[in-house]
Design goal:
Elements: E1 36-40, E2 44-45, E3 50-55, E4 61-68, E5 75-82, E6 87-88, E7 98-100, E8 106-108, E9 117-123, E10 128-133, E11 135-136, E12 143-145, E13 150-152, E14 157-162, E15 170-175, E16 178-181, E17 185-188, E18 197-205, E19 210-221, E20 227-231, E21 235-237, E22 242-248, H1 253-263, E23 266-271, E24 274-275, E25 282-285, E26 290-293, E27 302-310, E28 313-316, E29 320-325, H2 327-333, H3 335-351, E30 360-364, E31 367-369, E32 374-379, E33 385-392, E34 401-406, E35 411-414, E36 422-424, E37 430-432, E38 441-449, E39 454-464, E40 470-474, E41 478-480, E42 485-491, H4 496-502, E43 506-511, E44 514-515, E45 522-524, E46 530-533, E47 542-550, E48 553-556, E49 560-565, E50 573-577, E51 586-592, E52 599-605, E53 608-614, E54 619-622, E55 625-628, H5 650-658
Parallel strand pairs: 2-11, 13-19, 21-29, 31-39, 41-49
Antiparallel strand pairs: 1-3, 3-8, 4-5, 4-9, 5-6, 7-8, 9-10, 12-14, 14-17, 15-16, 15-18, 18-19, 20-22, 22-26, 23-24, 23-27, 25-26, 27-28, 27-29, 30-32, 32-37, 33-34, 33-38, 34-35, 36-37, 38-39, 40-42, 42-46, 43-44, 43-47, 45-46, 47-48, 47-49, 50-51, 51-54, 52-53, 54-55
Helix pairs in contact: 2-3
């Protein structure tokens, strides 16, 4: 088919040569048998230069086109040239690498794969020539499909090899170094683990004499069978050890070991359905098949599973539960045994080894001020202790646990009663910082030995508040002799009265700066807070103080002064009524100004004198006879004063037995002489 030319001689340029106005594209492919294009050189690789030599074209104008557009099916214009040397490049496929000659040939420099494809050239007489320019490349590194390298046993294996190259390369397939075929594909039915190995794809291109190789190492794996867990014990005492081993059901240990070597990629352990987080007490061995926990702790109680996987399958065992018996439970159930063991040890020590030291705990200091620190210092901690725990109170409960220490791992843990102010030490001691009143009390140290015997020791410490400054309340600072006085020791701390009973607070009284020496006229209240003096004497005058103290502090009140004043009494006198009396008659010795409470009266009767203690008692004296009356009763044979013989002493003896030797109170003496000679 010829070129459809609308105009070959449009307008002339300045040189007089004609310009091609435009071309219409041919509607069919170019197939002129006289015009040909020679590719020089015939084999072109990327980066080479190529010369498309056009032959048998008519002189005149030549137009070059690239392959037809895939969407419009129109040729893509490069440019044109003419026999007279004119060259024009208005086309959309011109890249700057092309050069047109006046004989219709085309030169392309530094070709790439983008230059690959069909080219057409047309002359002004309707002749055309066609050539398909092939850019030789590759082969690239081949790719083996599928991309995975792990395959199930007892399935079919199909591998194919592909590369990009021009011309098409030659393929060679090798398995484990041995040539298998010259095909792109490699097929093995019903594979097993023996088919694991290397699959090699080699591609070769005779131009430019390049070969490429890809090696794929394939692994044929068995599916993971059913699993279970073998455990040394499902109930374990805390601080003991436990071993869990992941096993394959119905498989002996030898084959199981081989299976783990060849077919298992990973083994994981799960705890309560989650991936197990390993601690420093846990260890994995035998390709993670065995999990050991030493020592176990309460938090290790729960359900364990093992999960085994390889790239083609995965299995998880059924859960198995491991229960850890807490030390608190062990201690509670073993406390009586512990007591018996301790008693046996004590008896054995007394009989066989009296020098054996026993565990003791000392509170340093035993009495501590609130806000200070106290150390529970352990003495003679046995070398065989595996673990020890501190509990608050005299009973062992989980909720009372403060802290524990594990000797094998040199680690500690805290319990529910831990406040953040306690520090436990490897020697068994426990430090309290910034103590409060709530910290006071008894603490138990519970120890577990290597043979799981139990021992315990207890200690107590007290927390006190410093005492406040006391002061004295007194009924009166100026007291009349023979009256009474009350002095009370008080404090501004309203709780001091209660704390005197419960906080080891003591009260001491001082007199003129010295400890008060109590007399039988002085009495103290139950807690020594009140001093009662009855009756006061002039020697009780002076400065009084009270001193409050507890095991951590003491305070002394300011002194308060007592002034004891003498009592002013009227002169005691006795009047004889009548002053003169006839023998055999009555006479009354009348006492005047007798003190209101107590007095003494010395009565002279004849040549004898008798002393009587009186308390508002009138005395009646008869001629030559003495009779003592009180308001309730009388002493003597006759209540009205029967006459007795002179010198009768029986009545005097009875009187002296009423208050023998009673000397309390002041002694007041008053005498009277009867003027009657007959008296």
């Amino acid at each position: 088919m010829g070129l459809n030319i609308i105009s070959l001689h449009g307008t002339a340029n300045q040189n007089g040569t004609s310009l091609l106005t435009y071309w219409t594209s041919p509607t069919t492919s170019c197939s002129n048998q006289y015009s040909v294009i020679e590719i020089v050189p015939p084999y072109i690789g990327e980066g080479d230069d190529v010369f498309l030599h056009a032959r048998n074209l008519s002189p005149g104008t030549f137009a070059w086109h690239r392959n037809r557009d895939l969407f419009t099916h129109e040729p893509q214009y490069i440019g044109y040239s003419s026999s007279d040397g004119e060259v024009h490049f208005p086309g959309e496929r011109y890249t700057g690498k092309q050069k047109l000659y006046n004989n219709g040939s085309l030169f392309i420099k530094n070709v790439t794969l983008n230059d690959d494809g069909p080219y057409n050239v047309y002359d002004s007489n309707g002749r055309c020539a066609y050539v398909n320019l092939r850019i030789y490349h590759g082969p690239d590194v081949p790719i083996i499909f599928p991309s995975n390298i792990h395959f199930h046993s007892r399935t079919n294996l199909s591998l194919s090899c592909h590369t990009d190259a021009n011309p098409l390369p030659q393929y060679s397939r090798f398995v484990n170094g041995e040539l298998q075929s010259f095909s792109q594909k490699h097929f093995i039915p019903n594979i097993n683990t023996n088919n694991s190995g290397s699959s090699i794809c080699l591609v070769y291109n005779y131009f430019p004499g390049v070969n490429r190789t890809t090696v794929k190492n394939i692994t044929v794996l068995s599916r993971i069978p059913e699993l279970s867990i073998r455990v040394t014990n499902t109930t374990v005492k805390e601080l003991n050890s436990v071993f869990l081993t992941c096993i394959i059901n119905d498989m002996d240990d030898w084959n199981m070991s081989l299976f783990w070597i060849h077919d298992v990629s990973s083994t994981h352990w799960l705890f309560n359905g989650q991936r197990l987080g390993l601690t420093n007490r846990m260890e994995l061995s035998d390709k993670n098949r065995t999990l050991s926990i030493d020592p176990v702790r309460r938090e290790n109680s729960g359900e364990y599973q093992c999960e085994v996987s390889n790239p083609v399958s995965s299995k998880r065992s059924d859960p198995i539960r491991v229960d850890i018996i807490p030390l608190a439970t062990i201690l509670k159930t073993g406390i009586h045994t512990s007591v018996r063991v301790t008693l046996q040890v004590c008896l054995s020590s007394l009989l066989a080894s009296p020098t054996t030291a026993h565990v003791t705990v000392e509170a340093v200091p035993p009495h501590v001020a609130e806000g200070k620190n106290v150390l529970l210092l352990v003495h003679n901690l046995p070398a065989t202790v595996e673990a020890f725990y501190w509990h608050k109170g005299e009973t062992v409960h989980d909720r009372n646990e403060i802290a524990g220490f594990l000797m094998p791992s040199n680690t500690n843990e805290t319990g529910p009663a831990y406040s953040g102010r306690e520090t436990i030490y490897p020697n068994g001691s426990l430090l309290f910082q910034n103590v409060t009143q709530n910290d006071a009390g008894t603490y138990m140290l519970n120890m577990i030995m290597e043979n799981y015997d139990y021992e315990s020791a207890s200690v107590q410490f007290h927390v006190h508040q410093p005492v406040t400054l006391p002061f004295i309340r007194v009924t009166n600072t100026k007291v009349i002799e023979l009256d009474s006085v009350f002095l009370s020791c008080s404090s501004n701390d309203m709780g001091i009265y209660i704390s005197w009973f419960f906080d080891d607070i003591s009260i001491q009284w001082l007199f003129n700066g010295q400890s008060l020496g109590l007399t039988k006229r002085m009495k103290l209240s139950q807690n020594n807070s009140t001093l009662h003096i009855d009756p006061v004497r002039r020697e009780d005058s002076g400065k009084y103080q009270c001193e409050l103290s507890n095991p951590i502090s003491s305070k002394r009140s300011d002194p308060i002064k007592l002034d004891i004043r003498s009592r002013k009494l009227a002169q005691v006198n006795i009047e004889a009524v009548p002053p003169h009396v006839t023998e055999g008659k009555n006479v009354l010795l009348l006492v005047h100004n007798l003190p209101g409470k107590r007095a003494c009266l010395e009565v002279l009767a004849g040549e004898r004198s008798y002393s009587y203690t009186l308390d508002r008692r009138p005395v009646l004296l008869y001629s030559g006879k003495v009779v003592l009356f009180d308001r309730a009763r009388s002493f003597g044979r006759d209540a009205h004063g029967a006459v007795r013989e002179e010198g009768d002493t029986r009545l005097a003896s009875q009187i002296s037995r009423i208050n023998p030797g009673d000397q309390w109170g002041d002694r007041c003496r008053s005498q009277i002489a009867l003027t009657s000679s007959s008296f």
